[in-house]
Amino acid sequence: MKRELAKELKAAGFPLGVKLVGHRFYPKKNNEHWSTTERERGAVITTDDLQNRWQDIEKGYYCPPLADLIDACGDRFARLYIEKTIWTAESKLQGIHAIADSPEEAVARLWLALRIANP
To answer: Which helix (H) or strand (E) covers residue 111, if one does?
Structure first.
């Protein structure tokens, strides 16, 4: 998931679940505790991060896993599929769908669209 989409989810109030080792997030760009690569491309959360950098994770932009994204869509989620290299997430609500380069981004965009269609 790209930084901007993770940032949009946070701004829209995405219901964050438990943050676990192996999940991804983007530290704030000005946070010097993280390498330039981690600030630009995201970081995978480690046990040490959960113990010593919790506030950095909270202040940054979390990338929810696919299962959490689908759960957040609730009963309005219909299906997720791929055609060639494009992922599509569809809602049970007519005409609401989202496309992206990854399944996580497609469902994240669907959640955002559902929030706008029916807050």
So the answer is: helix 103-117
